[in-house]
Amino acid sequence: MDHATEGANSVYERHRAEILRLIPSWYSPVLHYAIPITMVVSLLIASAALLQHLRAIELLAIPITLFIGFGFEWRVHKWVLHHRTPGLKTLYVRHELQHHVVFTNESMELRSWRELWLILMPAYAVVLVFLFDLPITLLLIKFISWNVGLLFLATGMLFFLAYETLHASFHCPRDSWIGRNRIIAWLRKFHQRHHDPKLMKKWNFNVIVPLFDVFYGTLWSPEREAAKERKSQAAALGAQQKA
């Protein structure tokens, strides 16, 4: 290891340690994850029990809600978590200035379960998501149907839990049973590229599935860059030949 690399690693470890000292002594990763699980599962059970004479067409609320969720995730990640937004500065600091400093594309794995404090949303976020979804749920119940409203609420809350779970799994040690899962490994590579400091502001904002990254053209990959370079070289060669 050369001196420059050793120095960079030393700076990284110092910054990492400084941020980890911010984790409260009373913090419990088990409780942190148990809160959204308990609330979401309870809502799922309650929603299923309250469905009335469900019609097949009402089930379309599930894929439509998921589609909206992927778009919402992309927008929040790009415009809130990576930009200073009035009233939401805490989310920016927690994500870009802490999460992305501790977990880089070269050091993605958490070293202690207490580091989930820097990966999972604050525990109260599940309540905020519920409060955000509730007015929409009531409007859907009023103007479409009771079942559509319940399916929207249940799917929206399940989407939040899936986001939290998958995001945490991408930062689990690669040699753990979670990290070795083929699906997790395949999805992790998209998120790992986002953790490159040079890419995080512009690329790979979807965490669950890169649906809207494909849609908006923000899905970065080595193949994309190679194709871009070939196109650039071809254009330059064409310009030279014309000259």
List strands and helices in order, with pairings:
Blueprint: H1 3-20, H2 29-50, H3 61-79, H4 89-102, H5 125-143, H6 146-170, H7 182-194, H8 211-216, H9 222-242
Structural class: mainly alpha
Largest β sheet strand count, sense and barrel closure: none
- What's the shape? globular
Sequence stretches where pLDDT stays below 50 over 5 or more residues: none
Distance between the termini: 47 Å
Key terms for this structure?
mainly alpha, 243 residues
Walk me through this protein's architecture:
This protein is mainly α. The protein has one domain (11-242). It is built from nine helices and no strands. The chain has helices spanning 3-20, 29-50, 61-79, 89-102, 125-143, 146-170, 182-194, 211-216, 222-242.
What is shown here, in short?
The protein has helices spanning 3-20, 29-50, 61-79, 89-102, 125-143, 146-170, 182-194, 211-216, 222-242. It is mostly helical.
